[in-house]
Write a structure and sequence with these properties.
Layout (H helix, E strand, L loop, with lengths): L20 E5 L1 H6 L11 E5 H11 L4 H17 L4 H6 L1 E2 L11 E5 L16 H15 L4 E5 L3 H10 L3 E3 L17 E4 L10 E6 L2 E7 L11 E4 L5 E7 L3 E6 L2 H5 L11 H10 L6 E5 L6 H15 L5 E6 L2 H4 L9 H5 L4 H13 L7 H7 L2 E5 L11 E6 L6 H8 L7 E6 L15 H8 L6 E5 L7 H9 L1
Parallel strand pairs: 1-2, 1-5, 2-4, 5-6, 7-10, 13-17, 13-18, 14-15, 14-16, 16-17
Antiparallel strand pairs: 3-4, 8-9, 9-12, 10-11, 11-12
């Protein structure tokens, strides 16, 4: 939701003149964030009966989203448990966040009872009943601003077309307003980097050199953020800072471009930075973003094989990704979990075949390599409750996951485990996510200052000249 209408998480002072807003929540809002009804501060929240029915039908399904439905139902019950039916219809006071931000009320509206009074849309569909409930409240309370909150784009269009004045997305957990502001994981300077440096102290320990430069050169800096220049004279990584100076590890552009993993060398500086982060044992989380064909999956898999088979840093490789329709069940078809996941992990097996052919010295069949690396294909649905130790986890296509789903996976990673998240924010298949509300965007922003993580936006398509032309011109 826009900052103009949504105060959640903002330190905004309220006053008696603040416009009273009534928010009607769609089911997908409570599935996205089960405690969303607590996020509207002094404004009132209405949950239509149809939403409760949809939550009830979802809670018993064998899907990851079922847990969120159960949590939402319990949270609503805890809030309304001591209220009478009359109070539930009129509105029950929500818990207050603090004295400066008094809370509004939560009520349940029986949208089925509106069949005789609101006939704007047919009552045959759940979405229509929720929209009709919002239209009814808008008509009954013209002095209040009535807002339908839904992540369903088509529902927002239908509500507007039916005459609802205000329809919005839920953006309390949205950390940026535009995808162009998303952290890329590196700074690229115009010209020669060293021409911008006025003072510099350097220390050399072993084969690593660290430079200490003025903080003004990179005022908005984050841990493990890379620095490169257009003149191709420098490549470094931020390792710390104080009020006056930033410490930068000198990686050496030629050394960065000379990295090698399972016969794969970087084709551009962005892949060089990605390989550096992927091969760094001190970095626990690597996030790779970028267009199709930029090498995200291939680099992740090549470095994983290198670290498991050649360097013995991890015991196994676990590969997972979101299946369509927001991690729906993988079904009851015959076969093992790996066999069921095979259609969704074709990109991984394609990359394995490329890597197998890439290295002429590689002995054994592809199955032998998969067995030696102990590669396991897992469904996102089965990640909850696990504790993954000393493994390298590759999470592909995670632009289709919510922040809550990504948190579930990240919190499964135990000691000695490295997680690689990759995705293309231009290829979101979910009906309820956009580039700015995707879980991938969320973790990029949340982990950008975590010393154990690194983010790299792989700029440039290297798959083929055909893929490159399509990315740039279609």
């Amino acid at each position: 939701m826009t900052e103009e209408n949504m105060n959640t998480g903002k330190n905004i002072e309220t006053s008696p003149s603040t416009e009273k807003i009534i928010y009607i929540l769609d089911t997908n809002i409570l599935l996205h964030e089960p405690f969303a009804f607590l996020s509207f501060q002094e404004h009132d929240v209405v949950v239509p009966m149809t939403v409760l029915e949809e939550l009830d039908s979802i809670k018993d399904r064998r899907k990851d989203v079922s847990r969120d439905a159960r949590v939402a139902i319990r949270a609503l019950e805890d809030t309304l448990s001591e209220a009478s039916p009359e109070q539930v219809l009129a509105g029950v006071k929500l818990p207050e966040n603090d004295e400066q931000h008094p809370s509004g009320c939560l009520s349940i509206i029986n949208d089925y009872a509106l069949a005789q009074t609101a006939r704007t849309l047919s009552f045959n569909e759940n979405d229509n009943r929720i929209i009709n409930a919002a239209l009814h409240i808008q008509e009954q309370k013209p002095s209040c601003k009535v807002v339908l909150v839904t992540k369903d784009i088509n529902m927002r269009l239908k509500a507007k077309g039916a005459g609802l004045a205000h329809v919005e997305d839920y953006r309390t957990d949205q950390l940026i307003d535009d995808i162009q502001f998303l952290t890329k994981g590196y700074h690229q300077f115009e010209g020669d980097f060293w021409q911008l440096i006025k003072t510099c102290d350097s220390e050399t320990e072993g084969r690593f050199t660290t430079h200490f430069i003025d903080r003004d050169v990179v005022p908005l800096s984050y841990m493990n953020e890379y620095l490169i220049d257009e003149e191709e004279s420098f490549a470094g990584k931020i390792t710390g800072w104080d009020d006056n100076r930033v410490s930068i590890q000198d990686l050496g552009r030629e050394r960065l471009m000379g990295r090698n993993a399972w016969g794969i060398h970087p084709k551009n500086i962005y892949q060089g930075m990605a390989m550096d982060a992927l091969l760094d044992p001190n970095i626990d989380l690597v996030i790779l973003t970028g267009p199709a064909g930029c090498g995200k999956t291939l680099l992740a898999l090549a470095t994983a094989l290198e670290q498991v088979i050649e360097r013995n840093l991890y015991d196994k490789i676990i590969v997972t990704r979101s299946t369509p329709e927001i991690a729906e069940s993988i079904g009851f078809l015959p076969g093992t979990e790996e066999e069921k996941m095979a259609p969704w992990l074709a990109a991984i097996t394609d990359s394995l075949e490329v890597l197998h052919k890439q290295d002429e010295s590689m002995s054994g069949s592809l199955d032998y390599i998969m067995d030696k690396a102990n590669i396991q294909f897992k469904s996102v649905n089965f990640m909850r409750g696990r504790s993954i130790q000393n493994s390298l986890v590759l999470l592909d296509e995670c632009q289709n996951l919510t922040a809550a789903q990504l948190k579930t996976i990240i919190t499964r990673c135990g000691e000695g485990t490295k997680l690689v998240c990759s995705g293309n924010l231009a290829q979101i298949d979910s009906n309820y996510l956009t580039a700015v509300t995707s879980g991938l965007t969320y973790i990029v922003e949340r982990f950008k200052d975590f010393s154990g993580s690194a983010t790299i936006n792989l700029n440039g398509v290297v798959r083929s000249r055909l893929a490159s032309f399509a990315e740039e011109n279609l």
